């Protein structure tokens, strides 16, 4: 259940969005791991808490990416 992003996630380590995009990829991996843990874990309450935290981390990373894109667009408009 990977989300598509516009613009797509950067793979160029010299790109301005590289760090932000790596944070999104890491957050997606944490969410996937949390969902897998839920399938195999006996304590469902703990699994739900971990999934909730992982989703919140992914949401924050996506918001940070939006802010970074806006910042880059503003810099481009100034020049």
UniProtKB/TrEMBL annotation:
Q: What is this protein called?
A: Uncharacterized protein
Organism of provenance: Dyella halodurans
